[in-house]
Design a protein that fits this description.
CATH superfamily of the largest domain: Glycogen Phosphorylase B
Largest sheet: 7 strands, parallel
Order of helices and strands: EHEHEHHEEHEHEEHEHEHEHEHEHHH
Number of strands: 13
Helix content: 40-55%
Shape: globular
CATH class of the largest domain: Alpha Beta
CATH topology of the largest domain: Rossmann fold
Strand content: 15-25%
Length: 385
């Protein structure tokens, strides 16, 4: 039975982990089913393929229409722009007679427009439209951390499928490089955007003057298109003046892979400064870049919160830290002991294999196969009637 599958993500321009999951999902399902990817604005498909190392030739990419100018203005005045957009998209999608609809759009209030729905949840938004969430048969969470908050906020049980992570190995000759990979976006106290805290990591490196004699800090990632994000990136550059600190904005995937292979240590700080119970959305929901670094034997030194604790086992394949003193202590321990870096790096490679693309593909295939079986039974039942 060849299913007609729709995948929905309105945030493709963010070029982050959620968007990678969307594209790998579309690529995998298109091997067996008819797959359409629905987005909010035109996409540069070739750029996405190169940046995320995916093949979208079999995927039909469709840009959905938004409300016309007058209804859009009225919605803005009423303060229900998101609800109006969801209604508009629901009407368009409902006409397509999709067999399966997969919503991978953060904070979406879209009611499932297909016979069977799956909500792939990076992290559950705090104020869901209850009727929308409950219109999906299955909730998929990307980590135990996210699943626990799905249970608390949405009163739903989620199936855990870890995101697909690329193998960035094999490692090349390791250099005195500390690496961080993550989107450069402006922070906001008004939403649950999980800021990558490059500013705090830069300040930590700036205070460790002993490391600056021989060691380098490299930041890589996509740069937000909004003005505030660009101002944030510019401020980072100003603060790093005169230091052995390097920025790689929107770098090709091969260049980022080379950084992973050369890096000895990987830093991660998402969630630091925000109490997990008060700001769970600002923690790292999973952490694809940490897994990628581990696959290339870069030893992770990560803030001990969110999904990072499911990836890194403290003192086995990396280190956890809870404050900047601990970050400095664990980093210096690795800097001074090359054998420790080598041993933890080798174990990091082994640990990273739990989160490979193949594992993700197998879990997704199992999920869709169960949905296909339900559709078959329903079809047989209708035929018998």
């Amino acid at each position: 039975m060849r299913l007609n599958v729709g995948i929905y993500n309105l945030h493709m321009q963010a070029m982050g982990g959620g968007e990678k999951l969307t594209l790998v999902l579309a690529e995998q399902l298109s091997r067996e089913y008819d797959v359409s990817l629905f987005c909010a604005e035109p996409l540069d498909v070739r750029t996405l393929e190169q940046f995320f190392d995916v093949d979208l030739d079999r995927v039909n990419v469709q840009c959905l229409d938004g409300p016309r100018p007058l209804p859009r203005l009225a919605a803005r005045l009423r303060g229900d722009t998101a609800a109006t957009l969801c209604e508009q998209h629901y009407r368009q999608l409902r006409k397509l007679n999709l067999d399966v609809f997969i919503n991978n759009s953060y904070a979406s209030g879209l009611i499932c427009p297909a016979a069977h729905g799956i909500f792939v949840c990076m992290f559950p938004h705090a104020t869901p439209v209850r009727s929308a969430v409950n219109s999906y048969e299955t909730i998929v969470a990307i980590s135990d951390f996210s699943a626990a908050w799905v249970r608390q906020r949405w009163q739903r049980e989620a199936e855990i499928i870890y995101p697909p992570c690329d193998d960035m190995g094999p490692p090349s000759t390791k250099e005195k490089i500390i690496l961080h990979v993550g989107r450069f976006i402006a922070d906001s106290d008004q939403d649950e955007r999980h800021h990558k805290r490059q500013d705090l990591l830069l300040n930590a490196f700036k205070s460790m003057t002993d490391l600056q004699q021989g060691w380098q800090l490299h930041f890589a990632g996509s740069l937000g298109v909004d003005r505030r994000s660009r101002e944030f990136a510019a401020a980072l550059g100003d603060n790093a003046a005169g230091l052995p600190v390097f920025f790689h904005f929107n770098s090709p995937r091969d260049d980022v892979r080379e950084l992973y292979r050369k890096a000895s240590i990987y830093w991660h700080a998402t969630g630091f400064g925000f109490a997990v119970n008060d700001y769970p959305g600002k923690q790292e929901h999973f952490g694809i870049t940490t897994v990628e670094a581990m696959s290339a034997a870069a030893v992770p030194v990560v803030y001990a919160s969110g999904g990072q604790k499911e990836i890194v086992t403290d003192a086995v394949d990396g280190f956890w830290w809870n404050d900047f003193d601990e970050l400095a202590q664990q980093t210096r321990k690795l800097v001074k002991d090359e054998d420790l870096r080598r041993r933890l790096g080798q174990q990091a490679v082994t640990s990273s294999r739990r989160f490979g693309k193949q594992t993700f593909a197998e879990r997704i295939d199992q999920l869709i196969s169960r949905t296909r079986d339900r559709l078959k039974r329903k079809s047989w039942s209708n035929s018998a009637d």
